[in-house]
Design goal:
7-stranded antiparallel beta sheet, single chain, globular, Pnp Oxidase, Chain A, 165 residues
């Protein structure tokens, strides 16, 4: 039997899948910095090194990332819930206020507080409903030790460290 699924039901089901939290950043063609909180991120390929992010086509971020041709993703540590909220607000201005960052290989900003980061060039874009799947070729990346920030069922949470290590 098939059921008709509404948007709210779908969102509720997808919220049961815990995700890491990251900030996607780019430098606009006019050198303006842009950043937004994302959780739709995954690795795609080891040869070549690629990741994907999903961007809403109606958001300003969509066109900024595509026109710049490059972006970075900073994976947030558990201590950076405030950064996630700051980069998730509707108003685009002020997102970088008080945030320390550095330019990496593509010139895209990487947040200094990042648990891990990837600096990418846009390799491909695929339309998918109201979003675009943006494939990024990884030009540089790095990580440090720490606990990740996790989002589950509409709120931030933490995962317990494995005691068997």
């Amino acid at each position: 039997m098939h059921r008709v699924v509404g948007r709210d039901t779908f969102r509720g089901v997808m919220s049961a899948f815990p995700t890491g939290v990251a900030v996607l950043t780019a430098r606009g063609v006019d050198d303006t910095l842009f950043g937004m909180t994302v959780n739709s991120l995954t690795s795609v390929s080891l040869e070549p090194l690629q990741i994907l992010v999903c961007l809403n086509q109606a958001c300003d971020s969509h066109d900024i990332v595509l026109s710049s041709g490059a972006f970075a993703v900073s994976l947030l540590p558990a201590s950076a819930e405030g950064l996630s909220v700051q980069f998730a607000k509707r108003e685009m201005t002020g997102r970088f206020d008080g945030v320390r960052w550095r330019a990496e290989a593509t010139g895209s900003p990487v947040l200094d507080e990042a648990l891990a980061w990837l600096d990418c060039r846009v390799a491909a874009v695929h339309a998918a409903g109201d979003h675009s799947i943006v494939i990024g070729r990884v030009e540089a990346c790095g990580s440090t030790a720490g606990e990740p920030l996790v989002f589950h069922r509409g709120s931030y949470t933490r995962i317990a460290e494995l005691s068997t290590r």
